[in-house]
Amino acid sequence: MRKFVIVDLETTGHTPFKGERIIEIGIVVVKDRQIVKEFSSLVNPGKELSPFISNLTGITNEDLIDAPTFPAIAEEIFSMMTEGYIVAHNIPFDLGFLNYELQNCGYKALNQPVLDTVELARIFMPLAPGYKLGQLAEWLAFDHGNPHRALSDAYVTAKLLLTLMDKIDSLPYETIYTLNDLQGRLKSDLHQILDKRMELLSFEPLQRNDLEIHRGIALKKKEWNEAEDDTVLTSFGEMIDNIFEEGGMLHHCMPNYEKRDGQKEMSEFIFDAFQQKRHALIEAETGTGKSLAYLIPAIYDAVRNKSRVVISTHLTQLQTQLYEKEIPLLKQVLSFPFKSIVMKGKSHYLSLKRFEKELQMDTQDNYDITLTKAILLIWLTETMTGDVDEIQLPSSGKHFFYRISTDTEGPTDPMSPWFSRSFYQRIRSRAQKAHIIITNHSLLCADIVADYQLLPSYQRVIIDEAHHLESTASKHFGLKLDYVNIQFLLNNIGTNQEGEWLYRISETYFADKQLLYREKWAKLWQETKADTDELFRYLFSYVSEQQKKDINVNDIGRYQYRFDPPKEDERKWSVIQEMVTRLTFNLRDLIHLLFLLKESVANGDDKQREDKLEEIQANIDQLQRVIDDLEIFFLVENQNQVKWIEIEAFGAKNAVYLYCEPIEISSILREHLFSVKDSVVLTSATLTMNQSFAFIKQRLGLTEDTALESKFPSPYLYDQQVQLMVPNDFPKLSFGNQQDYIDATCEAIISLAEVTEGRMLVLFTSYEMLKKSYELLREMITQDEFIVIGQGVSSGSRSRLKKNFQSYDRAILLGTSSFWEGVDIPGSDLSCLVIVRLPFQPPDHPIYEAKANHFKDKGLNPFMELSLPNAVIRFKQGFGRLIRSSSDRGIVLVCDDRMVKARYGKYFTQSIPKVPITYNSTQKLIEKVKEWL
């Protein structure tokens, strides 16, 4: 009989030794997998609750006045907790608080075995969307009627524990056995539970037809339902009439379907482009339904011609949406079968060969690596793809995953015992048979750079979010190098320390020369690390010393310095070049020693010889890439490239990042993409400026006669759904008086928020301005008025910040950079959008500066040819955040009156849907908002 005591606490804060106290305790006791006892009590903490805690828990100061203090209930709690496992959702928090309070009352600290259901859920439920208790309850369809109340949370934790125990019972012996080897470094005391399970399995092996055991690792069996190819199709026109018309297939399959004329017209337009083997530019405004509009002709064309069409997106979020939402819908809608697949770069896929080796190695892993190995073990019994994006790994686990990804495998070896089960080979094989390959701009561009060796061959491609193609292609035809990655590579190779890679590879070679080889390697390795450190520290100080006018601060707080060797300080630059030359010589010497090791291994009779040779060559290739990159950055001149250095102003003195990109990508795309593919369709909600495609065509290298063009307007009634307002009384923003502008912005935000009850997204062009505004807003308003959430200030990813924003009734979300697009907050969650400044790139941004000089040299105006079009497209992206459905209504406040007063302002107003624009004092605008809302 096994007893589990599940506990949950509500507290005034996070740290008991800083005076925070328990305000509620809930306990549930489970025996023989049945809930047999419960306990619940409010606890008087002897201090006031903050509005945040009251809002979170629903517990008020009045509720606690007559509640018992902890000493009054300590004996009852201690007696319930002293036998069996202690279980909590985040055990260090609950047990830490409980032991602190019990010891204060004279009791011993509880020290029996513990189980942490956060940790266990991460391991045994790797496909869960999140690991907060509420997220797991929703995913597992548990009734969680009173979240953030102790007894309700304890009950849900008990149900979660029982589900986790069932999951352990469903795993095969091999998985449990390997997990048992790892469990000693986890928070949860799993040893007895896993031992008992193995004992039972040794008598009665698990029968699971969906799994196979290969070399001691349990895997989900490969089961793909391939569609047949012999399909007879109706005409395209007849098919889309049947799909899009009222009462058509979409109407039947989508409960809230609304016919959109632009959607059908866009499908026809793309089909015509395919038939004519022409490229096409399509701007499909918000609400057009462009995903279905381009998928339908793509699928039809691919099935009819027994070929494939590639769909490329910028955001993985859209990739996932296409594959998990739109494709399943079209499988219902279309009268013929088709095959589709998501394809990503090799670093996304687990290498089973590498993972097996890591499990066999006797290493003292840190907690994150151990947890990652445990997660991957269970995930392998569930995944069909081996794609890391399916799961959430701890931070160090992400680096570990890259180390065991297919990207590190080296050349493909069909004789490998894992080849037939390789996730990447499986994906490649399926992609060869697929009609639709959904990928991202990054892999698409990597494929172009690799001369089309990564994706299966194709002649038609649809590029969604096409306004990002130029920047993504530039990155792929450029370079990136930084201190951390060079040191990471050197550390991975290691020295003669037992347990390190070099020691493991070389321990049986060189016989009497082994010691000499290792000593030589260790000396050279240390010198190389020191030279790397010295070079990057010198680069840091070199950038720091530049005049302020030469340095741009980007939106993640890094200083950027564009360098051009002929214009640099000759004396200091020659020091950098000497350092680089010395470092490359040392790297070449390391490569030479690895070649000697490779020869020795090749002549040996080691059973793992081929694996070792592959690993040695992979390290040689990586070191050679570092040499090549350093030479391009510092020793080779190229007038067609822009090179710059980024440093973290308050980071380590070697936190330096090197970047290099072509100044213009248009000729490269023209030669390597548009001239070799039959039809490239570029689509986005934001491709035009002032109703013209001229800018995007010029930037991407499309000539006037090669591309069809069309613009499909939004079905939304913007003139009735949106009011655009520009204040005329903001202070001028010039160097030295930024604070006045921030003050005016924050006052306007608060005044507007009081009318709209929060529900406001504020978009900045500068992270520095966002941070100052966040701090000022926090001073000006209390938490019980509005919750202020700031990107880069509040913790969490973009999607986490968005969820937090939506979970509060009265919230203000401050965003920069990525928040200008791809953030979808429909309905009443967002009713006000504030654009603080028109999104012009800083004139000292390295890429902009180089491109501007390039335009000047050609006798063109950089502002009109580059700066203004980029700002307009960015502005359109930001403007599109507000209206996401036909029922949305809202205010757009643009604090920058250049939109009205500057001669170029019309390019902004004429590039968005027609909306009423009011230019008046802030006070008058607020009054108008009150009336309108």
Automatic annotation (TrEMBL):
<feature type="binding site">
    <location>
        <begin position="284"/>
        <end position="291"/>
    </location>
    <ligand>
        <name>ATP</name>
    </ligand>
</feature>
<keyword id="KW-0347">Helicase</keyword>
<dbReference type="InterPro" id="IPR045028">
    <property type="entry name" value="DinG/Rad3-like"/>
</dbReference>
<keyword id="KW-0547">Nucleotide-binding</keyword>
<keyword id="KW-0540">Nuclease</keyword>
<dbReference type="InterPro" id="IPR006054">
    <property type="entry name" value="DnaQ"/>
</dbReference>
<dbReference type="InterPro" id="IPR006555">
    <property type="entry name" value="ATP-dep_Helicase_C"/>
</dbReference>
<dbReference type="Pfam" id="PF00270">
    <property type="entry name" value="DEAD"/>
</dbReference>
<dbReference type="InterPro" id="IPR006310">
    <property type="entry name" value="DinG"/>
</dbReference>
<dbReference type="Pfam" id="PF00929">
    <property type="entry name" value="RNase_T"/>
</dbReference>
<keyword id="KW-0175">Coiled coil</keyword>
<feature type="coiled-coil region">
    <location>
        <begin position="606"/>
        <end position="633"/>
    </location>
</feature>
<dbReference type="InterPro" id="IPR011545">
    <property type="entry name" value="DEAD/DEAH_box_helicase_dom"/>
</dbReference>
<feature type="short sequence motif" description="DEAH box">
    <location>
        <begin position="464"/>
        <end position="467"/>
    </location>
</feature>
<dbReference type="GO" id="GO:0005524">
    <property type="term" value="F:ATP binding"/>
</dbReference>
<dbReference type="GO" id="GO:0043139">
    <property type="term" value="F:5'-3' DNA helicase activity"/>
</dbReference>
<keyword id="KW-0378">Hydrolase</keyword>
<comment type="function">
    <text>3'-5' exonuclease.</text>
</comment>
<dbReference type="GO" id="GO:0016818">
    <property type="term" value="F:hydrolase activity, acting on acid anhydrides, in phosphorus-containing anhydrides"/>
</dbReference>
<dbReference type="GO" id="GO:0003677">
    <property type="term" value="F:DNA binding"/>
</dbReference>
<dbReference type="InterPro" id="IPR036397">
    <property type="entry name" value="RNaseH_sf"/>
</dbReference>
<dbReference type="GO" id="GO:0006260">
    <property type="term" value="P:DNA replication"/>
</dbReference>
<comment type="similarity">
    <text>Belongs to the helicase family. DinG subfamily. Type 2 sub-subfamily.</text>
</comment>
<feature type="domain" description="Helicase ATP-binding">
    <location>
        <begin position="249"/>
        <end position="531"/>
    </location>
</feature>
<dbReference type="InterPro" id="IPR027417">
    <property type="entry name" value="P-loop_NTPase"/>
</dbReference>
<keyword id="KW-0269">Exonuclease</keyword>
<dbReference type="InterPro" id="IPR013520">
    <property type="entry name" value="Ribonucl_H"/>
</dbReference>
<dbReference type="GO" id="GO:0003887">
    <property type="term" value="F:DNA-directed DNA polymerase activity"/>
</dbReference>
<dbReference type="GO" id="GO:0008408">
    <property type="term" value="F:3'-5' exonuclease activity"/>
</dbReference>
<dbReference type="Pfam" id="PF13307">
    <property type="entry name" value="Helicase_C_2"/>
</dbReference>
<dbReference type="InterPro" id="IPR014013">
    <property type="entry name" value="Helic_SF1/SF2_ATP-bd_DinG/Rad3"/>
</dbReference>
<protein>
    <recommendedName>
        <fullName>3'-5' exonuclease DinG</fullName>
        <ecNumber>3.1.-.-</ecNumber>
    </recommendedName>
</protein>
<keyword id="KW-0067">ATP-binding</keyword>
<dbReference type="InterPro" id="IPR012337">
    <property type="entry name" value="RNaseH-like_sf"/>
</dbReference>
<feature type="domain" description="Helicase ATP-binding">
    <location>
        <begin position="271"/>
        <end position="490"/>
    </location>
</feature>
<dbReference type="InterPro" id="IPR014001">
    <property type="entry name" value="Helicase_ATP-bd"/>
</dbReference>
